[in-house]
Structure formats: structure tokens, C-alpha cells
Design a protein that fits this description.
- It is a single chain.
- An eight-stranded mixed sheet has the order 1-2-3-4-5-6-8-7, with helices on both faces.
- Strand 4 and strand 5 form a beta hairpin.
- It has one domain: 3-Layer(aba) Sandwich (Aminopeptidase), CATH 3.40.630.30.
- Helices cover 26% and strands 26% of the residues.
């Protein structure tokens, strides 16, 4: 199923929208932070100022593309300033969709990741009509696991995935309106 990229989703405090070029500085701030990308599958090279645009550009060119791996910017509602992202792509098994999220460290602990994930999942499950979403979290990333659980995803335990040096926690949520 092809997922349509929304022009704009809103929650109480946030806007979820396609990335724009002005988001590059915020994205670089995330990528270059010592702790922020710690559990994301980026190489050390991809977090440099020279390589960050290479990680940033694919979501811009992939909206409504065939590959359906994309990220959306999460911005504050009052200033429309970039604070993180949410995204979707095929899961490792290829038969479900995986969602992911990240928030700049200065916005951690305020419930913003949970708010963004809830709104994004609502769009994907209820408006697009996907049957199931999955998410993975590094076992040491307790905050991300809490976001998944607070957003209504069920922890299914750990899962073995080829190519990873750890067994991530595996979360699922099903469309209850089917």
C-alpha cells in the first residue's frame, strides 16, 4: 500500500509536515549531538557537517516516491521551528510498516515525542488505513521504549534482526477500526 505524505498534521503543540530546506540546521544539530543519534543507525561519517545533507536530502526527494521510506519534520506549532522528525518505511520483514521518531535533546522530557508519535500513528492507522505499525528500540534506549508504550504500542519483547549487533525491543500496534 502506498502511503500519502500529509501536507500538515497538527496536535496540541506540534506540526508534522514535510521537511523544508530551512530544517537542515536543526537536523544537523540533532545529527552532531553527542547523545541524540546514539541509537540510530547512522555511521559516524553521516553525522558530520559535510555528510549530514546526504542523510537529509533523501526524505526531501522521496515524498510520494516508490520506495516509501520517508521522514516528516516535527515543528513547534507556535513558531514552526524544527524540533525533530517522525517517519515510516517498510519493516525489516517487508510485510508491515515501521515508524520511527527523534527529537532534539533540548526538547526531551516534555512529552513532545509521544505527542508527535500519537498524531502520526493516528494518521497512518485511521486516515490512511494501515492495518499494523511496528517500531524498534535499542534495549538501552529506555526513553524511546516509553514513547512507544505511551503512544499505545505493545512491547512484544526482543527480536533478532540480521546485521544488527543487538536485539532491539519490538513494538506493535494494530488498527482497531478494522
Amino acid at each position: 500500500m502506498k502511503v500519502k505524505v500529509p501536507e500538515r498534521l497538527e496536535s496540541e503543540r506540534l506540526i508534522i509536515r514535510p521537511f523544508v530546506q530551512d530544517d537542515l540546521d536543526g537536523f544537523y544539530s540533532f545529527m552532531s549531538d553527542e547523545d541524540a543519534p546514539k541509537y540510530i543507525l547512522f555511521s559516524e561519517d553521516e553525522t558530520t557537517i559535510d555528510e549530514t545533507p546526504q542523510s537529509f536530502l533523501p526524505p526531501l526527494s522521496n515524498y510520494d516516491g516508490r520506495d516509501q521510506i520517508y521522514a516528516l519534520a516535527v515543528a513547534t506549532k507556535n513558531e514552526n521551528s524544527f524540533i525533530g522528525s517522525v517517519g515510516i518505511g517498510p519493516d525489516f520483514s517487508g510485510d508491515k510498516y515501521q515508524i520511527y521518531w527523534n527529537i532534539l535533546p533540548q526538547f526531551w522530557g516534555k512529552g513532545l515525542a509521544t505527542e508527535a508519535v500519537i498524531r502520526f500513528m493516528d494518521y497512518l492507522l485511521r486516515e490512511v488505513g494501515l492495518g499494523k505499525l511496528v517500531a524498534y528500540s535499542h534495549p538501552d534506549n529506555i526513553a524511546s521504549a516509553k514513547v512507544a508504550e505511551k503512544a499505545g504500542m505493545q512491547n512484544q519483547g526482543t527480536i533478532l534482526i540480521d546485521g544488527l549487533d543487538h536485539e532491539p525491543l519490538y513494538f506493535e500496534v494494530e488498527n482497531d477500526s478494522e
